[in-house]
């Protein structure tokens, strides 16, 4: 088990930052870390994503958090993200070239998969874990069903998680969840309400830990 996979199992939540503005990024990341989340993802379709990844690696290093790139659709994006300092790569799709790129460089890749066939293909290609997506549409019953025959493959469930159902995802077999706007409210960040962001994150961290 790699360090990143171990952290995924241990901390259980990946914070997804999509559309975060560069001027708010550092304080937003600190607020999330203060709430207890240690895995932060900037999506590559965020303006200035690579610059934010780079500045987070510089500011937070390897001590406080691990910084990754999301919405990594192909190898070109993977190269850009890794050059900026990304420590893990997450995508909404399965691209085996991206997995191979990560394996060759010791970078964790958690590709997006929906079907059992995609999940097994990703696993055989070298992915340590897969992102089951879109969970908001598939539902936790779907996750429980595919976990039964594929229980040896760690699954990061992304989509539809809220404070009331987060426990259901873990009981259905997810090792972790990916969370965006339900975890990190960009309006609060833009309004400078960082304490409010921290408190929201802490609530989710406590809920995950209680399962």
TrEMBL record:
Statement: the UniProt record of this protein carries the keyword Cell inner membrane: no
Family annotation (Gene3D superfamilies): Aldolase class I
Coiled coil (UniProt feature): none
UniProt pathway: Carbohydrate acid metabolism
UniProt KW keywords: Carbohydrate metabolism, Lyase
Any matching Pfam family: Aldolase
Domain of life: Bacteria
NCBIfam families tied to this protein: eda
Complexes and interactors: Homotrimer.
Family to which this protein belongs: Belongs to the KHG/KDPG aldolase family.
Entry protein name: Bifunctional 4-hydroxy-2-oxoglutarate aldolase/2-dehydro-3-deoxy-phosphogluconate aldolase
The species this protein was found in: Paenibacillus terricola
């Amino acid at each position: 088990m790699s360090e990143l996979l171990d952290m995924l199992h241990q901390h259980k939540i990946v914070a997804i930052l999509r559309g975060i503005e560069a001027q708010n990024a550092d304080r937003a990341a600190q607020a999330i870390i203060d709430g207890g989340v240690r895995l932060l993802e900037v999506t590559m379709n965020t303006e200035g994503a690579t610059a934010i990844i780079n500045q987070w690696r510089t500011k937070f290093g390897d001590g406080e958090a691990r910084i990754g790139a999301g919405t990594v659709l192909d190898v070109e994006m993977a190269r850009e993200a890794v050059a900026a300092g990304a420590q893990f790569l997450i995508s909404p799709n399965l691209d085996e070239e991206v997995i191979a790129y990560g394996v060759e460089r010791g970078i964790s890749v958690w590709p997006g998969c929906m079907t059992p066939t995609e999940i097994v293909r990703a696993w055989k290609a070298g992915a340590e874990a897969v992102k089951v997506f879109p969970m908001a549409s598939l539902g936790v019953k779907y996750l429980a069903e595919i976990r039964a025959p594929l229980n040896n493959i760690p699954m990061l469930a992304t989509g539809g998680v809220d404070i009331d159902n987060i426990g259901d995802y873990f009981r259905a077999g997810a090792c972790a969840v990916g969370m965006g706007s339900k975890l990190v409210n960009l309006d609060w960040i833009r309004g400078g309400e960082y304490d409010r962001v921290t408190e929201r994150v802490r609530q989710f961290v406590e809920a995950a830990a209680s399962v």
